Amino acid sequence: MLKKAHVWVGWTGWIFTFGFLLACIPPLAWTIPPKLSPMSTPQEVHDFYVNHLIQIRAGAWIGMLASAFYYPWGSAIAAMTRRIENGRPPILTYTQLGAVGVAVFNSVLYFFWMAFCAFRPEDMAPELLRTLNDFQFILLEFEVFPLSLWAIAIGLAILSDKSARPVFPRWSAWVNFWFAGLVMTGQFMIFFHTGPIAWNGPLALYWPAFVFFVWICVMSALIIQGVRREDGVTPGADQSLYPAGPGTVPVALPNDGKPAHALH
Length: 264
Known about the structure:
Blueprint: H1 2-24, H2 42-51, H3 53-67, H4 70-82, H5 91-117, H6 126-141, H7 144-159, H8 171-182, H9 202-229
Helix pairs in contact: 1-3, 1-4, 1-9, 2-6, 3-5, 4-5, 4-9, 5-6, 5-7, 7-8, 8-9
Protein name: DUF4386 domain-containing protein
Keywords: Membrane, Transmembrane, Transmembrane helix
Transmembrane segments: 7-29, 49-71, 91-115, 135-159, 171-192, 204-224
């Protein structure tokens, strides 16, 4: 039962990806691709919200639901890499959990803000609604520093795993570093109202979104793979007795109770 729950947690990354994209693409919220731009007039923004009330509200509802699956996914990676820091201060694990909390809060707040803007737009001044809409897109695209830190912490944990059967394959550390660097293009959108780095541009929106969801899909597959590989671990056993990895022969315990050489 526990193994099935852990495998399901691996699937939450894909569920989050599907739900997030479904919430944002037309004909729902129209944020990927955006119907508006930083150069849209207040009246254009106002008309968009008034004319797409149901779609935007539905997108916000679906996105909020999808965000609930984000946290267990991030926590699963932290829990699995925690084994690597066994016996040492879990600095990388806590860094991951802190970054996960920021990322989940940002996702929840993004869809909350979307729902807020679409709740009573006909009573809002167009200038105010445009300001709220700008905030929504900046919120979506300006969180890349915590995401990059999160991925770097994962990558460092993976590289420090020297066991014979590591939790994650070594190459996946470079996937995390790749993500941490390439997603940074969205960070410069606050300096531009037009062009590829504006909040509706390819380097601020589409490229970071592509890199982000590829990263989630790859790590989701590795979570499931890792959970299934650990199926042979004895529940409650001291994992320090299994230096060659889950499901292997434990080391012998001499009279002093300390692990000795592995049995063959």
